[in-house]
Amino acid sequence: MAESTRRRNRRGDSPDAPTARRARSGAATAGDDAFRRGFASLTQLALSGVQITACVIDVKTDRLLFSVDDHLSVPTASIGKVLLLIEIAARLSAGDKSAHGILNRTAQDSVADSGLWQHLQVPALPVGDVAALVGAASDNLATNVLIRRVGLDAVRARGEALGLTRTFLLDTVRDYRGPDDAPQLSVGSARELATLFAGLSRGEVVNVATSQQVMEWLALGSDLSMVASAFGLDPLAHRTSDHGLLLTNKTGTDVGVRSEAGVLRGPSGSVAYAVTMRFNDTDLTGRLAVLEGMRTLGTDILEYVF
């Protein structure tokens, strides 16, 4: 979720307006018209100046179903927290002592916006509970405590070991980003993120235990406001199948950024997807149009798996 808006863009007080990008491989690469509505909706957004990166793949066959500039590395807000969870889960599955014990929050970890821990009285939690807060509420304070525990270098090395070259967790969560800080919390490419979620769903990321643990944490996620808004699931309780649908996702929100990656399983198949929208967030109408475009693509995804 969002970092605080009390930040300064490196090139001024407001973000540059993104420009529309030409789609790769004709944008929609499905062999049928399964994603025609999503393609039409995203095309209209691109023509209005929204930068779109998107990728949808069939989990079973790895077939590319839909693609818009999926090679570009763009700001993804809190999506990069998935890489942190992978590092924590890998250490837990390996029996690493650094992944166990009680973690104390400190004043240096404190940050505003998304999360629950900042509103709780308890000053310390087990590592697994801190990770669960990140999965459930994209908890910024919990994220910073976990980063302090394992270090950004370890998270970066883990991503490189997984073959990620355009997807990174760059920094801790900050209320304010100055000129000496990383300009974004995380960046990523839609293709890498969709592929990563497909791997998690198949138990291929590090090992089965690591993949399952990350998926369990992310299944607690309560943000179904973007692509997943089309799936009709209970935002607060969708860890089990509902009408044959099972969702695991992670979202990212920042000023002028809406991003989501996940896996949706259904009666007729499973897809992994990643979508990021960058837009000039100067009025509510533009933001709502972006969210509606993401929902439209979600409707196409739902029909494909259902």
TrEMBL record:
GO terms for biological process: beta-lactam antibiotic catabolic process; response to antibiotic. Gene3D superfamilies: DD-peptidase/beta-lactamase superfamily. One of its GO terms (molecular function) is beta-lactamase activity. Residues 1-29 are annotated as: Disordered. SUPFAM superfamilies: beta-lactamase/transpeptidase-like (SSF56601). Residues 55-275 form the Beta-lactamase class A catalytic domain. Pfam families: Beta-lactamase2. Residues 1-14 have a biased composition (Basic and acidic residues). Residues 17-29 have a biased composition (Low complexity). This is Beta-lactamase class A.
